[in-house]
Amino acid sequence: MDEKTIAIIPAFNAAQFLQPVVEGALKAIHDVVVIDDGSADGTSEVARKAGAKVVRHEKNRGKGGALKTGFEYALAQGFDSVVTLDADGQHLPAEIALFIEARRATGADLIIGSRSRLFTGMKRRRRLANRFSAMTISWSSGSEVDDSQSGFRLYTKKLLQSVGMKSDGFAAESEIIVRAGRGGFRILMIPINLGFIDGVHTSHYRAVKDTFRIAWVVFKTRFFG
Q1: Domain parsing of the chain, residue ranges
Q2: CATH classification (class only), 5-224
Q3: pLDDT 10s digits, 172-191
Q4: What is the 3-state secondary structure of the chain?
Q5: The pTM is what?
Q6: pLDDT at 205 over 60
């Protein structure tokens, strides 16, 4: 299986973290695009200087909105699969190769980098939020998912063309798991390492508010499509 893969990095006010993420990604994969989601700190300039292509939103649309733009770009450019990773350095770009190899070996359509064995190193509220989300999404999708909030993933063209996303915020990544599982697509979890464990200080994720928002989106997707 020889597929054309692109790395998509959603970024919002990530200028201080982004350069090594882009440079590391370019060592692992030829095509890297940063989706600047309405940043006000020079994120686009940093991304371009580091060697990435940039697609910019003039206004912030949320992570789901940035992912939608990235997916649209990838499909329009004829890529067979998309690897997504966060802009803050939590994900190790060198591990992009793990996703590409897992795709070749298994044919899975959604591959999620699991941090579950590292949850004990997270702050309690973040750890509990991750576990609650994983339990809810496993039940809703009919697939075993032990880390539903990891943004380090591989999506295939077939999946992206078949499964839509309605949400624009953090719930979009959970929604697509449910749609993929209920659509019969194979979901695979692979263990990943992290640049740092507790992303509270660099993440825009709000543990309580966003967790309940995710639960509501998952409920709606499970029962109403």
Answers
A1: 5-224
A2: alpha beta
A3: 888 889 899 989 999 999 99
A4: CCCCEEEEEEECCCHHHHHHHHHHHHHHCCEEEEEEECCCCCHHHHHHHHCCEEEEECCCCHHHHHHHHHHHHHHHCCCCEEEECCCCCCECHHHHHHHHHHHHHHCCCEEEEECHHHHHHCCHHHHHHHHHHHHHHHHHHCCCCCCCCCCCEEEEHHHHHHCCCCCCCCHHHHHHHHHHHHCCCCEEEEECCECCCCCCCCCCCCHHHHHHHHHHHHHHHHHHC
A5: 0.84
A6: no
